[in-house]
Specification:
This protein has 369 residues and is α/β, with parallel strands linked by helices. The protein folds into two domains: 256 residues, Rossmann fold (3-Layer(aba) Sandwich); 95 residues, Rossmann fold. The protein contains 14 helices and eleven strands. Helix 4 packs parallel to helix 5, helix 7 packs across helix 8 and helix 8 packs across helix 10. The longest helix is centred in the middle third of the chain and has 22 residues.
Length: 369
């Protein structure tokens, strides 16, 4: 495995970036069966262990019973398409490593639309069965996530299916921003939960990367205020497309340089979503590409809680942001990054934990280690 690497964003712009009202998104989500805000968990003991003032974990493992945050984006995008393009399609499709595919399948079942999901053949059996359980047809594709994206695009265009993808690429740029809009509910909930509990606002926010959708939504949310917290995107060292993009000439989207072998399955992306990149490029403070050991230690530290801290069950992808915080506070190679971000005894940190232990076998392997 390669060493953890990071990039301070040289393209970050100053100022406040106004955000259009997200009230319609929140109202829609509240109308869905099973909607309730996911927990915001305070972990003061873990914060002390890391040498910071406080730590909050936004835990998405309970979202709509899907085990991950993706239902927010998939449902809003499909709703908007049915609202604005009625009768223009009969089937929806997407490519996924698992979570987004299940979210689209779940939304399609709720809205009574046939659904086809393209997955890499190496996807965990639990993820495949979860998607089939939502009534969708699953197509397994040889290769990685990008191969599934290309296959989905080709077949969907040939058959007239409507793609609802969370990654935007040449020729497909309009719908991923709808998915990102759906994620805004997560951040609205955090604001409300902090206010209700009387907790201090975070000064450091750690958000998983992947193709960039949840990071895009977080940047838009937090850069619409002043002062904004420091925002750090976290991705696998072996799927480091965001880091490569920040380090590329002119900050242009670039392909991951890693091996693409990582336990952070849902963040194992070779290319950033093109519609998300401009917002990330202007608004994120830094990107941190971590080794699997940090994400897996994040799984263990979230699960093995010392009272009064509450135990949290998370998969490697879900615990990536926590792993990034661990690296910031303990990896000597991240010392300069931590100093630049001002991480220290006064830091109040928020980590977004995007999924529960969907791949149960992998979770048991990690916590047993």
């Amino acid at each position: 495995m390669h060493q953890t690497r990071w990039a301070i964003n040289p393209f970050r712009q100053s100022g406040v970036f106004p955000l259009p009202s997200t009230a319609p998104v929140r109202a829609f989500h509240r109308s869905l069966p099973g909607y309730q805000p996911t927990p915001l968990v305070r972990r003061p003991v873990l914060a002390r262990e890391l040498g910071i003032a406080d730590l909050y974990v936004k835990y998405e493992g309970t979202r709509f019973g899907l085990g991950a945050f993706k239902g927010l984006g998939g449902s809003w995008a499909l709703h908007r398409l049915l609202e604005t393009r009625p009768g223009s399609f009969t089937t929806v499709s997407t490519a996924s490593e698992g979570n987004h595919g299940r979210a689209v399948a779940w939304a399609a079942r709720l809205m009574k639309v046939p659904c086809v999901i393209f997955l890499p053949a190496h996807a965990a059996p639990e993820r495949i069965e979860n998607i089939k359980g939502e009534g969708a047809t699953v197509v397994l594709v040889d290769g990685g996530y990008e191969d599934a994206v290309r296959r989905c695009d080709q077949e969907s265009r040939a058959r007239g299916w409507q793609i609802i993808s969370d990654v935007g690429y040449d020729g497909y740029l309009e719908i991923p921003p709808l998915v990102v809009e759906g994620y805004s509910t997560l951040y609205q909930e955090i604001d409300e939960q902090l206010a209700a509990a009387g907790w201090a606002a975070p000064g450091l926010v750690m958000i998983p990367g992947g193709v960039g959708g949840i990071l895009h939504a977080g940047v838009d949310h937090y850069r619409a205020r002043e002062p904004a917290p420091r925002i750090v995107g976290v991705e696998p060292r072996e799927g480091d497309c965001l880091t490569e993009s920040l380090l590329s000439p002119g900050g242009e989207p670039a392909t991951a340089a890693g091996t693409r072998e990582t336990s952070m399955a849902c963040l194992n992306c070779g290319e950033v979503s093109l519609p998300s990149w401009p917002s990330i490029r202007r608004g994120v403070d830094a990107v941190l590409a971590i080794e699997d050991r940090w994400a897996e230690e994040g799984v263990r530290r979230l699960f093995r809680a010392t009272p009064p801290d509450e135990a949290i069950e998370a998969g490697s992808s879900g615990a990536a942001a926590t792993g990034g915080l661990l690296a910031l506070t303990a990896d000597l190679g991240c010392r300069d990054l931590a100093r630049t971000l001002g991480v220290g005894p006064d830091t109040v940190a928020l980590v977004v934990c995007t999924e529960g232990p969907i791949d149960r076998r992998d979770f048991e392997r990690i916590i047993g280690g």
